Amino acid sequence: MVVSRDQNAGRSYNVKIVSGFFESVEHFKYLGTTLTNQNYNQEEIKSRFKSGSACYHSVQNLMSSSLLSKNIKSNKYRTVTLPVVLYGCETWSLTLREERRLKVSENRVKRKTFGSKRVEVTGEWRGRHN
User: Fold this and answer.
1) Could you tell me if 36 and 89 are in contact, meaning their C-beta atoms sit under 8 angstroms apart?
2) Could you report the per-residue pLDDT of 12-28, keeping only the tens digit for each?
3) Is 76 helix (H, G, I), strand (E, B) or coil?
4) What is the reported pTM?
5) How far is CA 21 from the centre of its chain?
6) With the C-alpha atoms ordered 67, 69, 70, 71, is the resulting torsion angle positive or negative?
7) Structure-derived torsion over alpha carbons of residues 70, 75, 80, 84, reported in degrees to the nearest 10
8) Helix residue ranges, H only, 12-93
9) What is the DSSP track for 85-122?
10) What is the spatial distance between Cα 26 and Cα 108, in angstroms, rounded to a whole number?
């Protein structure tokens, strides 16, 4: 993959080896992270959200169980689901929209994990809010 500051650099670079050529690509996956020739992080962040969602749904029955305490659920979230979402995040340059999406997804998981709350005055159940 060739990365250039010149957006109009449409030149095709091929590397020749003994048995053939290496193909020029616009993006590829390296060590679990998607790299693009324009250095965009949006696709990588989307795939991290998707992986984190799949990870949460695989342990959703455990996380929504009333048999576990809030501390155990919180520890499981921090040690199982969160690292999947934040893998490689040190190299991301986030926009405000992407930061908001991270916060929204975390709050959604927490609301599903901790469930409804009982209002002591009225005795009714209500959903959790931020």
Assistant:
1) no
2) 666 677 787 777 777 77
3) helix
4) 0.63
5) 34
6) negative
7) 100
8) 42-58, 60-63, 70-76, 82-86
9) HHTTGGG----HHHHHHHHHHHHHHHHHHH--EE-TTT
10) 34
Here the tokens at position 58 are 């695989």
Strands 33-36 and 27-30: antiparallel
Q: Is 129 left (phi over 0), alpha (psi -120 to 50) or beta?
A: beta
User: In this predicted model, what pLDDT tens digit does every residue of 35-63 receive, in sequence order?
Assistant: 777 667 777 888 888 888 898 888 888 88
H or E element: which one contains 62?
A: helix 60-63
**Tokens read off for 29:** 């996956």
Show Cβ contacts of residue 38 under 8 Å, excluding neighbours closer than 6 positions. Answer: 3
